[in-house]
Amino acid sequence: MDDYERSSENFLPSDAPENTKKWQRNEKISRLISRAHSVNFLQIVAGLSQVFLGMAVVVISVLGLIQPFWLSTVMSIIASVTTMIGIYFCYAAISTFDSDTLLRNAMRRIIEEQN
User: Fold this and answer.
1) Which among 3, 43, 54, 87 could disulfide-bond with 79, CB atoms 3.0 to 4.6 Å apart, if both were Cys?
2) Whether 3 contacts 112, CB under 8 Å
3) What is the pTM of this model?
4) Angle between helices 69-95 and 41-63 (to 10 degrees)
5) pLDDT at 4 over 70
């Protein structure tokens, strides 16, 4: 694959039909979904449950359903940190890319350089 082919893969002219632009967006979405499917599903469920439960505790604390104010404050802080960790956990689970892809790309570049 030469430089022109590599650069033209992602090139989309401004007068391209709308179907082509939609196809390119759908391709990005399908890549994200395929990454999510390749990750252990339990990691994503754990991260989402952390986010949901953390937000639930924050809402309960803000509504004043926990009577001692100091306990409500401490629980709200802990739940906020738990929610942030859950969001990061979901992000890390989805955004990691396959090391095999990295190896495959490196081998392809080496072969291209030899030719």
Assistant:
1) 54
2) no
3) 0.53
4) 160
5) no
